[in-house]
Amino acid sequence: DPGEGSRRVFGEVFVAVGSDALDRVIRTSPREARYFAGFATWGPGELQREIARGAWFTAEADEGWLFHSHPAHMWSALQQSPRASR
After folding, report:
1. What is the rounded distance in angstroms from the CA atom of residue 16 to the CA atom of residue 27?
2. Can you tell me the distance from the alpha carbon of 83 to that of 86, in angstroms, rounded to the nearest whole number?
3. If DSSP codes are grouped into helix, strand and coil, which group holds residue 20?
4. DSSP for 24-80, written as a single string
5. Closest CA to 70 of 62, 78, 59
6. Model confidence, pTM
7. Residue 6 CB-half CA count within 13 A
């Protein structure tokens, strides 16, 4: 739990909102966290249209994929999972 300045996404998965929360995680438990960085924005209905067009893989949220999969193979394993749909 990165504490104040973070938001729970599901289970034990949090998003750090701001550099203070991220700094706290790095300082207190750098090996117990997995870091993903990115940024995307969509206009109204844009993401739903992209999903309908098959531009995204979707799957039920699962902490196991984020924390127990080998990072180098995580994305290809997710794409091949029967739980993922396109």
Report:
1. 14
2. 10
3. helix
4. HHHHH-TTS-----------TTHHHHHHHTT-S-B----HHHHHHS-GGGHHHHHHH
5. 78
6. 0.59
7. 18
Distances (CA, A) of 11 to 28, 44, 72: 20, 28, 23
Whether the CB-CB separation of 23 and 3 falls below 8 Å is answered with: no
Q: Which pair of structure tokens corresponds to residue 35?
A: 């870091």
Interatomic CA distance for residues 21 and 72, integer angstroms: 26
CB 84 within 8 A of CB 57: yes
- Cα 54 versus chain centre, distance: 19
The 10s digit of each residue's pLDDT in 5-50 is 788 888 888 888 778 888 888 888 777 778 777 778 899 999 999 9
